[in-house]
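Internal tracking record. Fields below are filled automatically when a chain is submitted to the structure queue. Please do not edit lines marked as system-generated. If the sequence contains nonstandard residues, flag them in the REMARKS field before resubmitting.
Queue: standard
Priority: normal
Entity type: single polypeptide chain
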Amino acid sequence: MRKKIKNSLSIKVFLWVFSALTICSMLIYGIVLTVLPKQYQVTSDRQLDANTELLVSKLQNMRYEDAVEEIYNFCIRNNSAAALSDDKTTLSFGEIKAEGFEIATLSIATSVTFSDKETEYALMISSISKTADVILSLMFRFLPAVFVIILFLSSLSAFICSKVIVSPIAKISKISRRMTLLDMTWRCEVKSDDEIGVLASSLNTMAGRLQETMEELKNANQELSDDVEKFKTLEEQRRNFFAAVSHELKTPLTILKGQIENMILGYGAYQNHEAYLPEALKSTEEIEHLIREIITISKMEHMDLQNTLQEVSLKQTINDTVEAIFPLAQDKNIQIHPIIRADMILSVNPNLWKKALSNIIGNAVRHSPRGEDVFITFESCEKGNTLLIENTGASIPNDDLPHMFTPFYRTDKSRNKATGGNGLGLYIVKTILDLHHIAYGIKNTEKGVVFFLYLNG
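SYSTEM-GENERATED OUTPUT FOLLOWS
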């Protein structure tokens, strides 16, 4: 029970208010019980004294018989007894006898003379009122009933106070427990202008700010997690890239080394240097080309693109690229069809944009069979601007499509140089387009393979 009281603010407030009201009420009743009868008696005595003085002033000019009647009426009005005496006789007024004057609450003695008497009379007036005693007796009699009423009213008042005071505090307490669980989806509905209302308003404000801060932290944490994942992905890509670079360089370097060693040692047909030196030069050129591509990728990854942006014509850059690739297409009897009915101004790095277009269109020509076609189409509509580069007569296995932009990835698992490059072409395209925030993709069509770009201007 004691623990329950200790842990309950409502019970404690009820007991405090109940005890305070009960004690104060009993103290007030006790003070009234003590002071009221005495104060009443003092007031009554003062009134009797004042009335006696008035009586004596009246009696001085009255005849004896009229005075007797006046004294009698006075005793009735003031609930008192009187005795009028001279040297020979004593005339009493009221029910009190002579010995009753000994217990009177107030006795006043004075002398009077009358207009028809020469003798001086002694007048004794005494209060016989028992009102103070009656009041005291009644208050003692009603004490149990008053005590019950005090207990009832104190209990009712304490209950109301505990509800009025503790109810908003209890709400705030429940809310504070939810706050400890970082639950901010609440609002403290305590509407008042006092300190509790101010506290509730402050809690609402603090909860709102904490909710905003938590959302910001959550978003920041999510962004950090995404950045960490991106970093892990990039790190993994970097490791794979360098592993692939090592593998790609190893093959031509091994061939070149073997050719040079055999020519130096003069083994067999390698004694004919003029026949094998061109092959050695070709291997050197392959290594040189691969290194240039790697350097290009490295520069793009660390460049500040914003300072190199220029406005270029889409139609003009496509025409320039087609013109540069025309000899390759002519060797394979491939027709390139630029269908650019509308022009568009792009904000790009000119060199990188031309490099990306050259790789995309060049791949379309290289991977198309002889006598096929390459269509370059630009579509501009309200939904967006799309550049399509489609080569016919070719297809990509569906399992290979997700890996087409992976460095050194080739659909030809034999990695024959006669059927493809070193596998960096589309990776370079991906890097350039990502730098420019241009969406892209590659897919198979009924005619062949299409590379598409979504241009935003």
